[in-house]
């Protein structure tokens, strides 16, 4: 096997998501047992989805749909079905349909970023809970003069290593606008791939609302230095571990939720708020956007 001289963080991360090193598609059984903050179990999210669905129903006389992106074991859709939700329920996930899922729930196995391009014309609600934080991104670390350097992955150890100064114009532009690197040794993640994913997901909606709930932050917090240490980490057995891009743990980083929202250029309204009742007091933030 040829070992590359250089491996970008996003490419290595993608291997652990959808590739040969996938944490989600590996042989070790249920990957969702490793996560301790299942927001889908919150009564608050059920109520919010219900409210958004009711609002969507005011704008159409046709059938309504709820699409759960990154549906996992189908917990949110199962609770919606048990609540008697009057809408078609669709789950999208990399993993196959859960064997005990309510037969009235539809399921699409695949990468939601690709499925979204084929699933359009939705009237209703699209939900992405703890989805965007799994989308691979690049990251940088500033040197002692505040110049951002790329964070790369060692092709052999699969651990982080510091690379050359960042030169990519698009990535620098994203940082300059959304997360300026202004302090020595600070770290920042570049959220442009998450922005593209959210734009694609919301593109499924003809009319209705999109809801993202995730580990996240806003520009004001980033400018204040709250997240200067960066947020890239690994998860295994319900706890944080050193992020190693070999598929042995789930890689995640907080979402620049305001940047993602700005990428959905069709949105009529946008509301961002902290999720104060998040399980385990996690750093959850919600993004609600409406589309007509």
TrEMBL record:
<dbReference type="Pfam" id="PF02636">
    <property type="entry name" value="Methyltransf_28"/>
</dbReference>
<dbReference type="GO" id="GO:0032259">
    <property type="term" value="P:methylation"/>
</dbReference>
<dbReference type="InterPro" id="IPR029063">
    <property type="entry name" value="SAM-dependent_MTases_sf"/>
</dbReference>
<dbReference type="InterPro" id="IPR038375">
    <property type="entry name" value="NDUFAF7_sf"/>
</dbReference>
<keyword id="KW-0808">Transferase</keyword>
<dbReference type="GO" id="GO:0005739">
    <property type="term" value="C:mitochondrion"/>
</dbReference>
<dbReference type="GO" id="GO:0008168">
    <property type="term" value="F:methyltransferase activity"/>
</dbReference>
<keyword id="KW-0496">Mitochondrion</keyword>
<keyword id="KW-0489">Methyltransferase</keyword>
<protein>
    <submittedName>
        <fullName>Unannotated protein</fullName>
    </submittedName>
</protein>
<dbReference type="InterPro" id="IPR003788">
    <property type="entry name" value="NDUFAF7"/>
</dbReference>
């Amino acid at each position: 096997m040829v070992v590359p001289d250089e491996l970008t963080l996003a490419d290595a991360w993608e291997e652990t998501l959808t590739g040969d090193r996938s944490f989600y598609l590996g042989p070790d059984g249920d990957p969702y047992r490793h996560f301790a903050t299942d927001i889908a179990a919150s009564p608050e999210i059920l109520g919010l989805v219900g409210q958004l669905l009711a609002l969507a129903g005011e704008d159409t006389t046709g059938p309504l749909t709820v699409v759960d992106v990154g549906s996992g074991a189908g917990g949110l859709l199962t609770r919606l079905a048990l609540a008697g939700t009057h809408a078609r329920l669709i789950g999208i996930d990399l993993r196959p349909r859960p064997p005990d899922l309510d037969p009235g729930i539809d399921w699409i196995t695949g990468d939601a970023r690709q499925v979204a391009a084929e699933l359009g014309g939705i009237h209703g609600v699209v939900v992405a809970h703890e989805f965007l934080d799994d989308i691979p991104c690049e990251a940088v670390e500033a040197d002692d003069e505040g110049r951002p350097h790329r964070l790369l992955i060692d092709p052999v150890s699969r651990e982080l290593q510091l690379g050359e100064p960042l030169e990519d114009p698009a990535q620098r532009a994203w940082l300059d606008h959304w997360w300026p690197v202004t302090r020595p040794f600070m770290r920042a993640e570049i959220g442009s791939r998450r922005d593209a994913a959210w734009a694609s997901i919301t593109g499924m909606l003809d009319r209705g609302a999109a809801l993202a709930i995730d580990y996240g932050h806003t520009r004001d917090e980033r400018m204040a230095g709250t997240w200067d240490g960066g947020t890239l980490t690994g998860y295994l057995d319900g706890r944080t571990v050193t992020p190693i891009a070999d598929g042995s743990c789930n890689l995640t980083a907080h979402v620049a939720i305001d940047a993602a929202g700005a990428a959905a250029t069709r949105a009529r309204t946008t509301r961002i708020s902290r999720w104060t009742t998040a399980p385990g007091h996690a750093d959850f933030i919600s993004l609600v956007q409406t589309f007509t």
